[in-house]
């Protein structure tokens, strides 16, 4: 088979980029955006990279392709890039806002996807008017102004979308347009309702806390604070200072971010927070530390196959994967990743670029974050969060994205591909219960959730008549899960550990014993160990269905299986996964002691409710 050859960088457009300097980052923008030009319409207003559909109309999807490129092109232009061809963009802006043109983007309804994309145009009008506004003729300028004013007046969804009106307003002021600035004031006030404290927001009233906090709330807030200079916007700077240390713990020492929540197809957009700090001149951590967090994240992505063979970014995470996508992901959606390139607006001699890259000074101490409901450990090569679970059901794979017990930067998480084949369920980081051996339920939402002494406690109901109490805590390199299940009828249960990429046949070393299973691949180890449950649990190494894990297309996950009788049962197990190496045997030998149920129950009386729980009862 030695005569089979593939292109060296197939599917990895950034593979040869070392991401060491500002020039490397600017080159990445060119690498990512140039292939898209092959899919631009004749008049320039519409960009369509594929034939898949999102829930919104095609014109909105085409506008998405037009506008999202601006998040990278505009900062590069401000920083002096001389390779950008603005002519098709200017022609496209004129055509897209002209009601008489075939490429017109269409009227802007309330709460419509067009509002998302108009924010990038407001950003461009503020920063590069000489490139995108001045070349327009007077009729085109009137059309652009009319379109943007109409969009600015439309109500947005009750979440991070409210920033889009503020960004549109910023662009309208930059071109001297007359519009209702009182609408901006209203949304500024309404955004305050989402602030939780300590630099954290919820993404709307449902108390969802995920990557939208760094790459939306803080990203937009820092842009406004830098470009608009309103006294009220100073709060965005202050909150970024409070937030920076917490969010830095979401990243492993190799740059990988904890895989959690929705919109992960935006890939390296989380780096936009660190870039926005630089853009705003906020040295919340030493410049070299911020630069390291930023560049390491980009370097991690450079090695991943995130594009199709034509260089177009794919829907997926670490590889093309429609299974994990959201209903609002069009083929153009992934280009929100370009928000990472905001610091290109800074010159090369800015201290963010000129500082020597430094590691983030992570200690062995756990990071307890009550607002997202996390307890995070940062072992070498990973960042692992124990999660209280969040209230997020109204989306595809919501339970997998928000309600698992553990999430990892190195191992990601998996989504289920078949809800009626219980025996084939992946259930990494979760426990599944089935009363018929076919259908199954997992944690979707909590009744209560709290943190006490670095231990998470939650109660939840997989079925209305079944109550589960769950405790999660760290014990050395392991995390421990304890479930007390109260049920009037019997169930079958499967609980999974971390899913690791499996090799070809005979490459992996496996071990299955009573209540214990482990796998060692060329690169990783994952194990699950029962700690004395009140029911007998058998172990297995489950070959998960392909394309279910967001990081690796083919995985193996250690699992424990059991029958749960009517009444009360207690399940206890330890879980570990780490890079394969000399320390593995020592880690596996440090199995935690059997959990002290009495001590765990005593914690319930002194816990602090996690912020994401809305109207959590007093415990």
UniProtKB/TrEMBL annotation:
Organism per entry: Phyllobacterium myrsinacearum
UniProt cross-references to InterPro entries, sorted A to Z: DUF2264_C, DUF2264_N, UCP014753
Residues covered by the DUF2264 domain: 21-359, 368-573
Name this protein carries in UniProt: DUF2264 domain-containing protein
């Amino acid at each position: 088979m030695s005569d089979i050859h593939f292109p060296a960088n197939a599917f990895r457009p950034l593979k040869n980029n070392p991401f060491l300097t500002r020039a490397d980052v600017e080159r990445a923008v060119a690498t990512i955006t140039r292939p898209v030009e092959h899919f631009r319409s004749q008049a320039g207003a519409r960009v369509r990279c594929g034939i898949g559909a999102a829930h919104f109309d095609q014109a909105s999807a085409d506008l998405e392709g037009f506008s999202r490129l601006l998040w990278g092109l505009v900062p590069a232009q401000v920083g002096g890039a001389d390779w950008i061809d603005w002519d098709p963009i200017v022609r496209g802006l004129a055509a897209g806002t002209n009601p008489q043109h075939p490429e017109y983007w269409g009227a802007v309804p309330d709460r419509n996807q067009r509002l998302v994309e108009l924010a990038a145009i407001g950003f461009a009008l503020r920063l590069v008017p000489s490139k995108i506004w001045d070349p327009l003729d007077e009729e085109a300028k009137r059309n652009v102004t009319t379109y943007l004013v109409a969009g600015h007046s439309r109500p947005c969804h009750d979440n991070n979308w409210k920033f889009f009106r503020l960004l549109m307003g910023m662009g309208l002021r930059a071109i001297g347009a007359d519009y209702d600035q009182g609408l901006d004031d209203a949304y500024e006030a309404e955004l305050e309702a989402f602030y939780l404290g300590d630099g954290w927001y919820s993404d709307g009233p449902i108390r969802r806390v995920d990557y939208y906090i760094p790459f939306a709330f803080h990203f937009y807030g820092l842009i406004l604070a830098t470009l608009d200079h309103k006294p009220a916007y100073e709060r965005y700077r202050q909150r970024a200072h409070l937030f920076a240390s917490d969010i830095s713990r979401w990243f492993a020492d190799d740059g990988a971010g904890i895989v959690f929540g929705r919109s992960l197809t935006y890939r390296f957009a989380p780096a936009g927070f660190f870039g926005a700090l630089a853009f705003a001149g906020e040295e919340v951590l030493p410049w070299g530390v911020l630069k390291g967090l930023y560049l390491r994240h980009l370097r991690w992505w450079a090695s991943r196959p995130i594009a199709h063979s034509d260089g177009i970014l794919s829907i997926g995470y670490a590889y093309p994967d429609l299974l994990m996508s959201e209903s609002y992901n069009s083929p153009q959606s992934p280009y929100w990743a370009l928000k990472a390139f905001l610091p290109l607006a800074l010159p090369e001699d800015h201290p963010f670029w000129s500082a020597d890259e430094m590691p983030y000074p992570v200690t062995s101490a756990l990071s307890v974050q009550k607002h997202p409901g996390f307890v995070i450990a940062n072992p070498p090569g990973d960042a692992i969060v124990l999660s209280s679970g969040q209230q997020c059901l109204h989306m595809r794979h919501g339970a997998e994205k928000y309600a698992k017990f553990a999430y990892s930067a190195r191992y990601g998480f998996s989504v289920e591909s078949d809800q009626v084949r219980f025996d084939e369920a992946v259930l990494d980081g979760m426990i599944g219960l089935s009363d018929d051996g076919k259908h199954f339920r997992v944690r979707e939402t909590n009744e209560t959730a709290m943190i006490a002494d670095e231990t998470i406690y939650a109660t939840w109901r997989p079925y209305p008549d079944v109550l589960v109490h769950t405790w999660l805590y760290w014990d050395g390199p392991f995390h421990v899960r304890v479930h007390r299940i109260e049920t009037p009828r019997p169930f079958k249960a499967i609980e999974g550990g971390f899913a690791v990429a499996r090799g070809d046949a005979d490459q992996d070393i496996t071990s299955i014993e009573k209540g214990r299973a482990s796998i060692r691949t060329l690169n990783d180890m994952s194990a699950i160990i029962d700690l004395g449950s009140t029911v007998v649990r058998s172990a297995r190494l489950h070959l998960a269905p392909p394309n279910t894990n967001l990081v690796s297309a083919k995985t193996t996950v250690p699992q424990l299986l059991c029958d749960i009788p009517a009444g009360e049962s207690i399940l206890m197990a330890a879980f570990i996964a780490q890079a394969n190496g000399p320390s593995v045997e020592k880690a596996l030998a440090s199995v935690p002691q059997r959990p002290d149920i009495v001590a765990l129950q005593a914690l319930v009386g002194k816990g602090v409710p996690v912020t994401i729980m809305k109207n959590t009862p007093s415990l």
